[in-house]
Amino acid sequence: MSALSGQVCLFRCLVCVPDRPKLTDSYTEDTWMKLRDAVSAIQNSTSIKYNLEELYQAVENLCSYKVSPLLYKQLRQVCEDHVQAQILQFREYPSSECSLDNLSFLKKMNRCWQDHCRQTIMIRSIFLFLDRTYVLQNSLLPSIWDTGLELFRTHIISDGAVQSRTVEGILEQIERERNGETVERSLLRSLLGMLSDLQVYKDSFEQRFLMETNRLYAAEGQRFMQDRDVPEYLHHVAQRLEEENDRVISYLDQSTKPLIATVEKQLLEEHMSAILQKGLRILLDENRVCELTLLYELFSKVKGGLTALLQAWREYIKSFGAEIVSSPERDKEMVQELLDFKDKMDHVMQRCFQRNDSFINAMKEAFESFINKRPNKPAELIAKYVDSKLRAGNKEATEEELERILDKIMIIFRFIHGKDVFEAFYKKDLAKRLLVGKSASVDAEKSMLSKLKHECGAAFTSKLEGMFKDMELSKDIMIQFKQYMQNQSDPSNIELTVNILTMGYWPSYTPMDVHLPTEMVKLQEVFKLFYLGKHSGRKLQWQPTLGHAVLKTEFKEGKKELQVSLFQTLVLLMFNETEEFSMEEIRTATGIEDDELKRTLQSLACGKARVLNKTPRGKDVEDGDSFQFNSDFRHKLFRIKINQIQMKETVEEQVSTTERVFQDRQYHIDAAVVRIMKMRKTLSHNLLVSELYNQLKFPVRPADLKKRIESLIDRDYMERDKENPNQYHYVA
């Protein structure tokens, strides 16, 4: 339109404008007839008899002589008559339910609209002077272009039957496209553009379109949720949303934004619970990263979607984790399964849930919840898992891999409430690794210690650090002792190594009096004399439980060295005297307790390296059994380790460690109660319990707190108020 107008104006500038003719009624009439013929020719798509410049000049002349109102009115009337005549072709169009007939109707309407637009542009180019002067100066008058739109809207589109059939036809074409058929998008784009230009898009089409869309996807959502699995359904929803977005871009008016919201509501919002209940566990169990990512993206589009997903994600972690933690038969693999589960959830978090802070916090909360459902056991098993990784002979990981494993273990460790249980079992296992020389790496040990110190503070690791200091000091003492022994007039054939342990740092061991060979006893006395000579006022208590030795042994195959525990040593040395001993004879000679003796004999006669033979044969040791030295013993190694039994935890040790933890907890509770009451003097029962929960770092039941309070009252640390039994007073 603007290009044509520009050409006319340019042409006018180049041509000399003749003198205006004198205005007469005859001239006005003739000029109008000429203009009307031109308009009719345009409307009927026939050739115009007159030059466009001449027609433009004629309009300018009429406007200059103040006949613009009449000219505008006559032009409008001519255009209106033409538009009114067009309606007949649509009213007379045969009605049909055939899609081809409906498509033909739409094409006819589109041609009519395109012709009308083209004609209006051409007419406006001729009457441009009128449009830019008279019409522009009268704000109440619509422009020639707007007049054309108004006439088309009034006489064609506003016709009930025509509008209904047009909209029905458009909706039918869209439905066919939604069903997978190919339609003429350019036709739809043109017709919907027509409705938009005529300002009837929302009222005549959009409301009906959204209603049909709502109905379609409501039915489709119900059907697909029943017939398809969740991964397939999610991909279908994503495809539908992509298709509808494409429609908005391709031919719908940009104002049709409720369309996407309608699809999301019917395919997602209405089925959020069903999708999560039916499919989330499957997606997570099977690690379906692609579908989980899609699920997150889709749920982020609807109101409350991420909140629902977050809750379901949290419950899944609690449920799956509880299955791992609560099953005693899975204890052996519990920690590894927890680490694998945490890795898996971290992977989902990073790849699928965009590292959403809410989801990260929910995961931490869920892990902390389920891992403490079974008090104490996870802490114990984590300590044992660390022990298995830090032991010598663990060839599963390099130093770098071991460091990564320890970092992962610390993440699980953070979730545990009963960290004192972990400390007790970790200290017991660390003691064995250090004393029996089974630690894989001092650097790894100190790295783990550093991690624990950073996580729990210096007080948590002070005793553990003391154990390492004792080992270092023991090395220095042994250097001095060797020099001392070199100056002795009666050197021993036995090379003695002693670890001096500070009692407060190390686990407590039950003293056991065993019968040592005379030469060992003599060497102990020599060391005692040496040590107390340097450190007067100290007391030495020998602990044979974790002692170990290397014995030189002769078999028929040749000489071997046996790396054995002290108890194994006492048993084997007996066979220097004779070939066979009964169980009772060995018990009497060594003084080893029954359970420990059975374990020791079982390791020598029933294990992989059988240096003793047992009669009768079997895996268990009984009181009536007898044992013989196995001179036919063969092994490919020169030094054979048989003292692995020392590293194994007995049931008694486990029970003892657990009981010690509970005893220590009672001391901590007592100390906390006294500390609080000493500061507050008087306090109600509920406030005291609340203060205790804030101070204690391990889980405790209200009933246990009540018992400790009663105990302190009995021991006169505090007393009940005489009038109010729920009120306590501190007793100085």
Question: Which labels suit this protein?
Answer:
732 residues, mainly alpha, three-stranded mixed sheet, three-stranded antiparallel sheet, 30 helices, 66% helix, disordered N terminus
Q: What's the topology here?
A:
Elements: H1 2-14, H2 25-43, H3 52-64, H4 68-91, H5 99-126, H6 128-132, H7 134-137, H8 144-157, H9 160-178, H10 185-197, H11 201-227, H12 230-250, H13 258-267, H14 272-285, H15 289-299, H16 305-325, H17 334-351, H18 357-371, H19 377-390, H20 399-414, H21 419-435, H22 442-456, H23 458-486, H24 518-534, E1 548-555, E2 558-565, H25 566-574, E3 580-582, H26 583-590, H27 594-605, E4 612-615, E5 626-629, E6 639-641, H28 651-680, E7 682-684, H29 685-695, H30 702-714, E8 718-720, E9 727-730
Parallel strand pairs: 2-6
Antiparallel strand pairs: 1-2, 3-5, 4-5, 7-9, 8-9
